[in-house]
Amino acid sequence: MPRTDEIMLRLWPVPESCAQVRHAVRKLCADTPLADLGDDAELIASEIVTNAITHAATLITMVAVVRSGELVVTVSDDVAALPVAGSARDHDENGRGMVVVDSLAGAWGVTPRPIGKTVWFRLP
What we know:
Layout: E1 4-11, H1 16-30, H2 38-56, E2 60-67, E3 70-77, H3 97-104, E4 107-112, E5 117-123
Antiparallel strand pairs: 1-2, 2-3, 3-5, 4-5
Helix pairs in contact: 1-2, 2-3
């Protein structure tokens, strides 16, 4: 039977939540055969949680699962608005998060829920 490791965090929509997510995802990767994914996983999860904090401002649930050699992370909030890749100009401080996600994740997407959405990504 394949090994499964999982963490779940319920987070307030405050900047400190990003640090909690980065630490938890890095530790999960370090404690599994996916340690080499830690940097990318930490960055992608942080970007998605930052979007939830900024645009949803509701409680956030982050779940990260390692299963069969793959990391899957989901971030859920209570706002239906979907994330979009920004068109930030060179001097803009924001607007690049989903571009980062799109360039680093093996796959990612959004699943609508009855209240809100779940943004997920996968790293093989």
